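Async update (no meeting this week)

Hi team, since we skipped the sync, here's where things stand on the single-chain job. The sequence we agreed to prioritize is pasted below, unchanged from the tracker. I ran it this morning and attached the output directly underneath so nobody has to dig for it. Comments welcome in thread, and please keep replies under the output.
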Amino acid sequence: MTSSTTLISPEVRALVGYKTKWRAAVEPVSRSEVRRFAVATYNQSPLHLEEAYAERSRWGVVIAPPTFAVRGVRGKLGSGEAPEVTLPPDHLNPATPRRVNGGNEMEVFRPVQVGDEVRQRSRLLSVTEKSGRSGPFVLMVVETVYVDQRDLAVRIVRHYFARLPMPSAGGSPRGVSAAPLPEASVKGHYMSPEDAKLGAKPLSFEAVEIEQQLPANEYGAVTSERVVRFSAAVENYEALHHDFLWCREHGFPNVLINGPLKEGLLATYAEQLAGEQGFVRKLSVSHRAMDYPGDILTAKGTVSRKEAGSDGLGYVDVDIWLENQRGERSCPGQATVVLQRRGGPAVPTAFVCPPQSVAWAMEE
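Output:
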């Protein structure tokens, strides 16, 4: 691409710094929503599924999995479109109509609870033209603040979106093999959420060691039924995740496993490492390869850092990833879990968000 051509229109460049209006969820968080999201992401924690158990816990109420605020809280009923996905609006991106979820970085301050009224506001941080192995693309970075009914920060998330030109007629989208991946080829590898081999256990700050390899979560073959179940849980009805004929017509060998579903599987893994007495403080993911129904996904992790905080708590960073049967790390990431140290204070149920981090969102 020469300096005289660009994939970024002047209208899009002018939107850098633009802030959306606040968008409220259509209704308070319900037990049903939390349950459906947890089951769809193989999360078996009774904190999400059993009201009596949750009420006896230190949380005192049913709480949602870590990525629920980002993917499970919707605005207009049935829209399935978060505001950050369409910022800037599609009609301002004629050269790059195809959106790809590149991943996100999430900072967690408090869990979303049943009864919470969550709202969110986004801003466009940057739009940059890049060149990758498959050609030029546009990288958009969008930051979103999520708050509850008390205006307390729940999450701050930076979303990374790649916008790409559409493939030529009869061609395949970049990086997509034209060979179909039949679901029947992995018959016998399917596991229901109840049967999945979730080997991850709560970490002990004193016992954990740098470069320690952690037990894996074997989710088995993620079937099209599982993809549809997750799509329904978050009301995302994009053809890419359920319409086989549409996918074939647009160069994909099969429907795609949702990126947010893979994020949820990693969040389940991170939550197990933190345990009920710990806290998933940060979670980042990057989507590096596509996975399809029938692919066998396993979450794995290695400890990369541990630090005794001045607040008396233990902080452990873990490199985590989803690996498929082809040996691809299709969704790598990192989690920071907060643990109680021996003789130290209990891990709090919420962390304070620095006011300057959300000041832009609170402005009129």
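Quick observations from my side:
Residues 76-80, 177-181 have pLDDT under 50 and may be disordered.
The longest helix spans residues 259-274.
Reply here if anything looks off.
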